[in-house]
Structures are given as C-alpha cells and as structure tokens.
User: Which sequence fits this backbone?
C-alpha cells in the first residue's frame, strides 16, 4: 500500500501522522492493520531520516514493544516442560538470589512485581555477562513486597528472562528467538540483535530514531552497528512494523502460523489473561493490568488517563505492549483486529500519549468500528 492509498483509506490516522510531522513530533511512521486476517494497511509515511523515505521495509527499533516476543519464547519452554511459571529464578540463575531476591519467580518477572527496577546495567557498553552480574548483585527495592508491589521494569527483569532462556537452551538469546519464533512466523527482517554484517547489508534500511528536545528533533545514535548488535530482550528488537503485526496475528489465531504451530492455545490464553489486576504501577503512575509480559486493556481505570492503551473502542480482552514514546502492537480478539505502528520521534511522554490515543482512536474510526475522532 502506498502512502496515497493509505491517506484515502485511513484518512483520520493519516491526519494524525501528518499533524505530528508538521508539529515536529516525528519525521515518519510505519503502520500495519489487519482485520480477521485480512490486511487493511501496510504503509509508511514521511521520512526515516532527512532525505530518506520511510518505507514498509525500514528496520525500526521497537523498544519495549518487543517485550512480548521474549514472553512467548519463555512460554515455548514452559510447553516443553523446561520450567514452570512459579519456578524461582534462582533455580536457573543461583547467583540471582543475592540481595533478598531469592523468592522472585518467573511469573513475578512477567508481571513486573519482582522489585529490582532500577539497576545500572551498563548496556550496551558492557558485555552481556557483566550486565547479568550487575543485575544479580542488585538488592531488592526497599519496602517492596514480592508479588504484591507493582512497578514496570524497563529492562532489568527482561535481561534475566533472556538469561534463563540461554541457560535452558544453551544458545544465545537472539539466536534462540530468531530460530524458534521469528523465522517460523516469517519475521525474516526482525532481530533480537542484528549481526554487524547484516547491518552493513541493510544500509539505509536501518531506521533512525529522534528525540524531541526544546521543540526540535535530534537524531539519536541508536541506529549504529554496535548498538544494533547488542541484545537487550526488553528493548532492542528491530524490524519492519508489519512483522510485529504478524506476531499478533499468530496470537489471534491461538498460536498458529503459516509454517505451523508456534504456541499452544493454552499458552496464548495464559499469556493474555489478567495475572496482575487492579494494582497501581509505581513506574507508570497508574493502575494497569498485566498478563504474562503483555498489558491488558486497562480503560476501566481511567479512559483518558491510562498510558499505552488501545483506544476508546477496544474490548476488555485487548492486549499488547508499547515501546517508550514511539511504538505499539496490539490485538483485540473480539474485533479480530491487529494494529502495529511506529513513530520515529520520541516526542516526550505527554505528547506521545496524546498522539497514541488519537492514532488508536483514528484507526478504530477508519475501519468503521467507532465514531469519527476529534483530532
């Protein structure tokens, strides 16, 4: 789909993108929408960087929108009998128990109730092993009640989940998810860590990300080869956004992919059920419900205030995950709707939440499932 067709078929969503470009919130966007398996939009608008068009093939940084891939990889090991969700992390990583963290389980990591949010990991400047050593040595947060206190862990717990996968499989995290998840889903241009030679081959397909500072967009250096090659299970997955859409389409089909079954229906149900309900998130500053590594619709706690939601029209079963100030992937099983999008400008938390709410509501309107949004 070219940008002209997208502008005609998704006029409200296209207007949100264009208004953001005019306001200096981003220079470009990728968007993918499917309804009951039928692709409605696979489009790119604007520029990846100055003078370089954003295309549907641009390899963009998903940040935390990639977290559910790690969760699914862990559930694959659960299906194989390699772990249970209530296993203590120390079963796999004995040194993790230091500092009062011994009782923390895999379920606590997936629901952000573990209590070791603020760790200076050193990533990406230090090695994976050094990052693990720093996280394992970190103490439990003061006054944290494991399994009861809630607070989104931006990266620390996801490194630990990646290490659990490595110790079970004997393989590097990025290699494991590529072979067991990404390639079976046809996500051939999605990577947990892009090898340097592949980075060179991609050339200008490697997307840029900008940060809005004092009203101006500044290009970050997050596209450089060394950073792209450094695995971070919670923050450094990259690919075209349509491939994130394919991931959610697999979940909509109860784990079935064109190449065969990736996950059992029981595991999909476990992933998307509400495991953390009604708890105030000390990081996100709002009550938010979590599944196993996914955010479940939390509109009930404040339609206009909940961060990283999925629009006013979404059903309570909607699940997904956002990437900080930039991207999001989600699925509404009741509507059969899958949406994934990426804005290449980190616009500031407040600006992004307004942009994301407007964009999601515009998508619902453009596909005819909601009233016309006020832009």
Assistant:
């Amino acid at each position: 789909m070219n940008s002209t067709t997208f502008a005609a078929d998704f006029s409200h969503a296209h207007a949100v993108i264009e208004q953001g470009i005019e306001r200096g919130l981003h220079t470009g966007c990728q968007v993918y929408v499917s309804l009951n398996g039928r692709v409605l939009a696979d489009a790119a608008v604007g520029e990846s960087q100055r003078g370089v068009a954003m295309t549907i093939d641009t390899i963009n940084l998903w940040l935390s929108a990639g977290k559910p891939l790690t969760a699914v990889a862990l559930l694959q090991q659960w299906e194989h009998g390699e772990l249970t969700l209530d296993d203590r992390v120390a079963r796999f990583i004995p040194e993790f128990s230091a500092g009062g963290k011994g009782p923390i389980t895999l379920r606590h990591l997936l629901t952000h109730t573990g209590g070791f949010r603020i760790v200076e990991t050193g990533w990406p400047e230090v090695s994976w092993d050094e990052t693990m050593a720093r996280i394992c040595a970190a103490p439990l947060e003061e006054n944290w009640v494991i399994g009861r206190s809630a607070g989104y862990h931006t990266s620390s717990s996801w490194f630990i989940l990646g290490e659990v996968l490595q110790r079970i499989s004997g393989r590097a995290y990025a290699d494991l998810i590529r072979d067991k998840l990404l390639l079976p889903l046809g996500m051939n241009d999605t990577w947990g860590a892009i090898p340097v030679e592949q980075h060179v081959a991609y050339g200008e397909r490697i997307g840029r990300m900008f940060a809005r500072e004092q009203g101006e967009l500044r290009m970050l250096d997050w596209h450089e080869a060394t950073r792209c090659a450094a695995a971070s299970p919670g923050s450094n997955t990259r690919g075209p956004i349509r491939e994130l859409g394919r991931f959610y389409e697999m979940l909509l089909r109860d784990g079935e992919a064109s190449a065969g079954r990736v996950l059992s229906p029981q595991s999909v149900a476990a992933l998307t059920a509400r495991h953390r309900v009604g708890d105030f998130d000390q990081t996100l500053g709002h009550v938010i419900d979590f599944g196993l590594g996914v955010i479940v619709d939390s509109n009930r706690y404040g339609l206009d205030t909940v961060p990283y939601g999925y629009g006013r029209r979404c059903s309570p079963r909607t699940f997904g995950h956002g990437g900080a100030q930039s991207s999001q992937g989600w699925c509404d099983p009741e509507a059969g709707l899958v949406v994934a999008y990426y804005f290449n400008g980190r616009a500031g938390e407040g600006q992004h939440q307004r942009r994301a709410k407007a964009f999601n509501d515009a998508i619902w309107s453009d596909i005819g499932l909601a009233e016309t949004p006020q832009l």
